[in-house]
Design goal:
Layout (H helix, E strand, L loop, with lengths): L4 E4 L5 E4 L6 E3 L26 H8 L5 E4 L23 E3 L4 E3 L5 H10 L3 E6 L6 H12 L5 H8 L10 E4 L14 H18 L4 E4 L12 H10 L5 E8 L6 H4 L3 H21 L7 E9 L4 H5 L17 H15 L5 E6 L9 E3 L5 E3 L3 H10 L3 E3 L2 E3 L2 E2 L7 E2 L1 E8 L4 E8 L6 E6 L6 E9 L25 E2 L5 E5 L3 E9 L1
Parallel strand pairs: 1-21, 3-4, 3-12, 4-7, 7-8, 8-9, 9-10, 10-11, 11-12
Antiparallel strand pairs: 1-16, 2-15, 5-6, 13-14, 15-19, 17-18, 19-20, 20-25, 21-24, 22-25, 23-24
Length: 503
């Protein structure tokens, strides 16, 4: 087998526009995501509200457009009113989802303040586990109505004269999961979501709503769940959600890096199901996808079993990510970009400490995990129009998938900036992959940067003592030859960002 790959992109062969919200993230009241993550009042870097400025800078470095809040499994037992009003009067509650105590020091208003400081918007979730339409209409009145009603005037009395104008709302979380507080069948959830969606849009018709899809592609009820839920909610919702995590439990890296092929299939199946319901309803509206939980998650499973219940902000789900995890995160980002016509929102779960690109020490440092880098590169350089990638690549067979291409890649054209960016992963663990890029329709171009994330140790991770063990460098060798072809060598097991300036 000759190890070389090629990719042709044409500026007229487009997949779709990138909605910047595809680079969203997630903060749940779970572990140290809030307390000890974004919020730590006693920290030397805490601002006047208790938000950590060092964490804020790392968040801003990702240019995150939207953050889902407050859960997650947590939201299905959460009374949002517990998190408003004077902090000293707020109740401590048992959180049954994660078996901790929630002190409610951060709630809706504080989170909205944090969003403003972090230059991001909120994707707010409502509780459809223990609650329903009644609480949902109240929270939207509190958040989005100017004044003159009980809930909007209460917000004003809490010091927030202007409404928050939260425009994106999730109708519950993972309601198909037996682990969920108040889990429902597809028909039960579909009815509840439909009636909740109706009253929410009656309060504020400008909002967009996300219905719960399956908790993962391995659920026995997938994709029948999506079909049933959308039959109930089609007229009232704008998105259906997808959640998927991967782990390398059997220590088979070649198979682990192939998992994004399952993500491709997952996305395509949900699109097909949504389109089937649209056809059945004789509808004009396309239901788009919100991939609002995705990541690698498995490193912390054993440690989490040992946590004492009913503590406040214990270190839960604290995966320490290594180099191979960053490669799969890169492949997952490429997966979503390849369906940018329909995947319009996505949330890397989560943002700080909890299966996160950013880690902190209580009272101490904050640093970037390996997965921070592909996420940052995609968010910074992956804005524009995604082009159809015509790829030829050598392939391999893995345990779960056959014909896995060593090259996983996509191209994004930013017309405004006259740039094309290629994101590419070489899945080969031992050999470099020569790549020929053909951008013939764009005319002359030059390589402005070839960023590479690579490591001789697939298990190398960034820790508090070695925060830069795995980090990108500008040492890539992409270049344009005399015929206008672009040649690059992608190092073994590497993530690559090739940035091209058009003439």
């Amino acid at each position: 087998m000759s190890m070389k790959a090629s990719m042709i992109v044409d500026k007229d062969f487009t997949i779709g526009e990138v909605d910047s919200r595809i680079y969203g993230s997630f903060i749940e009241h779970l572990g140290r995501a809030v307390y000890g993550g974004i919020y730590e009042p006693g920290h030397p870097q805490a601002d006047e509200q208790g938000f950590r400025a060092d964490v804020m800078e790392l968040v801003k470095g990702l240019d995150v457009p939207i953050v889902r809040y407050p859960g997650g499994n947590f939201v299905s037992g959460y009374n949002w009113e517990d998190g408003i009003g004077p902090i000293e009067e707020r109740k401590k509650r048992l959180d049954l989802a994660w078996r901790t105590i929630e002190p409610n020091l951060v709630g809706l208003n504080e989170f909205m303040d944090w969003c403003r400081k972090a230059n991001t918007e909120a994707m707010m979730a409502v509780n459809l586990g223990t609650r329903g339409a009644d609480a949902a209409r109240d929270i939207i009145e509190y958040s989005n109505i100017k004044g003159g009603t009980y809930w909007s005037d209460l917000r004003i009395s809490h010091g927030y004269q202007a409404p928050h104008n939260i425009k994106t709302w999730c109708l519950g979380n993972e309601m198909d999961g037996p682990w969920q507080i108040g889990a429902k069948t597809a028909a039960e959830y579909g009815r509840t979501a439909c009636e909740t969606a109706k009253v929410m849009k009656w309060v504020d018709p400008s909002i967009e709503l996300v219905a719960c899809g399956s908790s993962s592609l391995t659920m026995a009820t997938f994709p029948e769940w999506e079909a049933t839920v959308l039959e109930h909610t089609y007229n009232h919702v704008d998105y259906i959600s997808l959640h998927q995590y991967y782990g390398n439990r059997d220590k088979d890296t070649s198979n682990f890096l192939a998992q994004s092929m399952g993500m491709d299939r997952f996305i395509n199946t949900v699109i097909s199901t949504a389109d089937y319901v649209q056809a059945k309803k004789r509808g004009k509206k396309k239901i788009n996808l919100s991939f609002d939980e995705w990541n690698v998650w498995y490193h912390s499973n054993d440690a989490d079993r040992k946590i004492e219940p009913w503590s406040i902000a214990p270190p839960q789900l604290e995966d320490i990510y290594n180099h191979e995890d960053a490669l799969l995160v890169g492949c997952m980002l490429i997966s979503m970009l390849k369906r940018a016509d329909r995947v319009k929102m996505a949330c890397l779960a989560q943002l700080v400490n909890v299966i996160a690109p950013i880690m902190t020490a209580n009272g101490g440092a904050a640093w970037k995990q390996t997965i921070y880098y592909p996420y940052m590169h995609a968010s910074l350089f992956g804005r524009g129009t995604v082009l159809v990638p015509l790829i030829k690549s050598p392939k391999y067979d893995a345990k779960d998938y056959t014909d896995v291409p060593y090259l996983e890649a996509v191209a994004v054209h930013n017309e405004e900036k006259s740039e094309v960016t290629i994101f590419a992963v070489n899945r080969h663990l031992a050999e470099a992959l020569p790549l020929e890029l053909d951008l013939r329709s764009f005319g002359a171009c030059q390589v402005t940067q070839h960023i590479v994330l690579e490591s001789d140790d697939l298990k190398a991770a960034n820790t508090i003592d070695a925060q830069d063990r795995v980090k990108p460098h500008n040492g890539g060798n992409a270049a344009v030859d005399s015929n206008g072809q672009i040649h690059a060598t992608l190092g073994k097991a590497s993530w690559n960002v090739i940035r091209l300036k058009l003439a």
